[in-house]
Design a protein that fits this description.
Blueprint (H helix, E strand, L loop, with lengths): L1 H12 L2 H20 L8 H9 L9 H6 L6 H7 L3
């Protein structure tokens, strides 16, 4: 739609089209800064818990394992797909 509407907007309101486009870009950046969910360094189970609200696995969170709060045993490794 933007591709089709941009030439028409340029004809009708001229340079103000660029101001509208810039304002929209700033609004999108603000929305991303507020609501973007960081998923770096998380397991798929942790990401699932963030987006779905519940964890569908018994695998412990990676952060808890790294801190030593959770012991990883053979059962957990089998569930995670490692021998």
């Amino acid at each position: 739609m933007v591709t089709m509407a941009f030439p028409i907007a340029l004809d009708k309101i001229g340079w103000k089209t660029y101001m509208i486009n810039g304002a929209w870009d700033v609004l999108q950046i603000a929305m991303i800064a507020i609501w973007w969910v960081e998923t770096k360094g998380r397991t798929m189970e942790e990401i699932d818990e963030i987006f779905d609200g519940e964890k569908h696995s018994t695998v412990p969170n990676l952060h808890e394992v790294e801190l030593g709060k959770v012991e990883v045993d053979a059962q957990v490794l089998r569930e995670f797909g490692r021998p």
